[in-house]
Amino acid sequence: MSNQVQNLNEKISILGVPVNKIGFFDTLKKIDEFVRSGQPHQIATVNAEFIMGAQKDRELLKILQNTDLNTPDGMGTVWAAKYLAKNEKLKTKNYSGALRLLSNFFWLKTTLLAIIFARKWLRSEIKERVTGIDLMWEIANLAQERGWSIYLLGAGEGVATEVAEKLTALYPRLQIAGGYSGRPEETGLVEKIAKTKPDILFVAFGNPKQEKFIFKNKKELGAKVMMGVGGSFDFITGRAKRAPQFLQKLGLEWFWRLIREPKRALRIYNATVKFVWSVFRQG
Q: How far apart are CA 135 and CA 165, in angstroms?
C-alpha cells in the first residue's frame, strides 16, 4: 500500500523481539484501524525487561513475535534501536576485526551518553517511548471520542472498579464494559468478559501472565484490541508512584524503581547492564 502504511509497520528486531518504530500518534491510528476492522488484535508495550524475559521464556518470545503491535515502552528500546541501526551501517564498511570491535565500543559509549546529552539524535530510529500507562490514558481519551467500550481486568480486589471511577471522572462519556480483578486460570473468566463485548480490554496481570492470557484467549475474549498494562492500574489509583518527570525524560525510571524497591535490584540489573551487554553482542 502507501509508504505511510509501510512506515507504520516498520520494525526493528532487538534480541529477536520485533519492536515497531512508532510514536503515540501513529499508535493511536493503528488502534483505530484495529477496532474498525472488528477482528481481535494484541498489543504489547515492550521494554528492556520484556525483551530480557523473552530470552529465557520461549513462549513469551513466540508471543511477542506474533503480536499485532509492539510499542517501544522504555528508553532501553529507543537506545537499542539507534545502536543497532548504527552497527548495521558499520557492517557495510568491511572493517577488520580489531577496528570493528573498537567502532562498536565507540558507538556503544556514544549512544549511551546520548540518552542524557543528545536525546533528539538518539530518537532518529524510534522518535519516542510509547509507555503502557501513557498509552492507556490516550486510548481512554480516544475511546470517549469514538464511543468504544473498555473492560478493565486484573490487579488487586476492587482496583479495577477504582480505575473505572478515575477514568470516567476524567472522561465522562467513556463507556466501561466491566471491571474485575480475576486470575488468568479462573474458570469462566473468558466467558465473563466476552459477554460484555468490549472494544478494548486492558489486562493487568503483570508480564508475562497478561501476554500469555491474551494470546491464548485472543479469539474468545470478544475484544478488538487487547493490551497488557502491568502495574498501570496501581499508578492510576495512586497505589504506586511514577518517577519524577525529569527522570522519565532522562530514561532513568529504573533508578527511581531501584530506590523505592531495592528487592527489584536483580530485575533492574537484567534490564539495564545485562540488556546493554546483550544488545552489544547482537550488534
A: 18
Pairwise CA distance, residues 197 & 126, whole Å: 34
**Which of 148, 83, 74, 78 is closest to 281 using CA atoms?**
83
C-alpha cell at 217: 484467549
Specify the pairing of strand 200-204 against strand 149-154: parallel
244 neighbors 96 (Cβ within 8 angstroms) = no
Q: How many Cβ atoms are within 10 Å of 76's Cβ, its own excluded?
A: 26
pLDDT tens across 121-159, in order? Answer: 999 999 999 999 999 999 999 999 999 999 999 999 999
CA distance 76 to 279: 10
Please report, as a single letter, which amino acid is at residue 193: I
Q: Quick one: which of 198, 204, 193, 200 has its CA closest to 154?
A: 204
Set of cell numbers at residue 32: 483505530
Q: Locate 199 and state its grid cell.
A: 472494544
Candidates 185, 193, 206; CA nearest to 152 is 193
Could you tell me whether strands 149-154 and 69-72 are parallel, antiparallel, or unpaired per DSSP bridges? Answer: unpaired
Whole-structure pTM value = 0.92
CA distance linking residue 23 with residue 273, whole number of Å: 26
Query: Cell 486470575 sits at which residue?
Result: 183
* Residue 237 contacts residue 163 (beta carbons within 8 Å): yes
